[in-house]
Specification:
Layout: E1 44-51, E2 57-60, H1 66-77, E3 102-111, E4 115-120, E5 129-134, E6 159-163, E7 170-175, E8 184-186, E9 192-194, E10 219-221, E11 344-349, H2 355-362
Antiparallel strand pairs: 1-2, 1-3, 3-11, 4-7, 5-6, 5-11, 6-10, 7-8, 8-9
């Protein structure tokens, strides 16, 4: 176990600071990701990004292997002969235009196991962190009931972010399963919570989304409600999209007065999944909600599933997108409702490291 002291900053021309975790301190066998978080659920990786002080992202890249990660560290410090120096505009020309740019490194963990679990605080944890949560989505309602007065779209989960949290050596977290109405929480429900969508009510009123006002964090956004049924012999409504780190989810589209279904609502802006396509009369089932990509290609706020068309009794509502999207409704006389998607928690922190180990390794003064 290496000695832990404070996060470091390192000048990088023309960027004023470079926040890093030393290559020599990488844990053997530990998954790494230096430029962005992209990974499979449950893995911890590192993110290295080049960004401006106003939050604009200029560049990011994926690395999974610790040896490749170390090469990138040394490139960023300009200490690996024969490789482009990441501090210079010749490596990234946009540095000419952004003299206030800096490299930032964070450790990012995706928590996706539903139910009650334990998070063990890493040895290099620091209180420069944020916990981001999305609540679970709910299923569409009313398929196979025989009456249009019970069809309704499922809803999307809320989003919450808690910044700079001090935690104990181990903490409990909960991730709600789809259609469970169990909120996603970290530590406890009064510390960080993203409310899950409520279960479809058995009427033609769309399911209630996870609400910002019922969530806990420094930033909260509401999911999109489920689409309403029309109370007539029409196609089925779509599910609502989940909220994400950039804003609220969009509601599922209400049923029209015709035989086609309606589209699901999109997940949060700037990376949330698209709403699922509507099912059409005498055609195929509704489309699934898109998966969110705010954190990487496979993690973000999901779109709501589309609602099915009317005439085929086997039509199925579209499933909600990953994570937290609501399911679309199926046809009233048969088929099945679209299933919502579970919640997620993303833990991000700036590692605390031994600065002397870095300076000694690379010869910095």
């Amino acid at each position: 176990m290496h000695t832990l002291t404070t996060p470091i900053s390192r000048p990088a021309f023309p960027a004023p600071c470079l926040h890093v975790r030393a290559p020599g301190l990488l844990v053997p066998g530990h998954k790494t990701n230096l430029f962005n978080v992209g990974g499979r659920p449950g893995e911890t990786r590192f993110r290295l990004s080049l960004q401006t002080f106003d939050g604009r992202m200029l560049f990011r890249r994926f690395e999974d292997d610790p040896e490749d990660a170390e090469k990138l560290w040394r490139r960023a410090f300009g200490t690996l002969p024969g490789l482009p120096d990441a501090r210079l505009p010749s490596w990234f020309p946009a540095l000419h235009d952004y003299p206030g740019a800096f490299y930032a490194v964070d450790t990012v963990t995706f928590l996706t196991t539903t139910g009650s679990n334990t998070y063990t605080r890493p040895g290099d944890w620091s209180n420069t962190n944020n916990i981001q949560l999305i609540g679970a989505g709910s299923n569409g309602g009313g398929a196979g009931s025989g009456t249009a007065n019970t069809i309704s779209g499922g809803a999307g989960g809320a989003f919450a972010r808690k910044n700079n949290l001090s935690i104990s050596s181990s903490e409990t977290y909960v991730i709600g399963a789809a259609n469970s109405a169990n909120d996603s929480t970290f530590v406890n429900a009064s510390t960080a919570k993203a409310q899950a969508a409520r279960v479809a009510p058995g009427t033609n009123t769309g399911a209630v989304a996870g609400a910002a006002g019922s969530s806990v964090g420094d930033t909260t956004y509401s999911g999109g409600r489920g689409g309403n049924g029309s109370g007539a012999a029409t196609g089925a409504p779509g599910g609502g999209g989940a909220a994400g780190p950039n804003g609220a989810g969009t509601q599922g589209v209400d049923s029209p007065n015709d035989a086609s279904g309606t589209a699901g609502g999109a997940g949060g802006p700037s990376g949330g999944g698209a709403g699922g396509t509507a099912g059409t009369n005498y055609n195929n089932n509704a489309g699934a909600g898109g998966n969110g990509t705010e954190w990487d290609a496979t993690h973000g706020s999901g779109g709501g599933g589309g609602g099915s068309g009317r005439e085929n009794p086997a039509y199925i509502g579209g499933t909600g997108g990953r994570y937290g999207g609501g399911g679309g409704s199926g046809f009233k006389s048969g088929g099945a409702n679209g299933v919502g998607y579970q919640g997620i928690i993303v833990v991000t922190y700036t590692p605390t490291i031994d600065t002397s180990a870095i300076f000694g390794r690379f010869g910095f003064m």
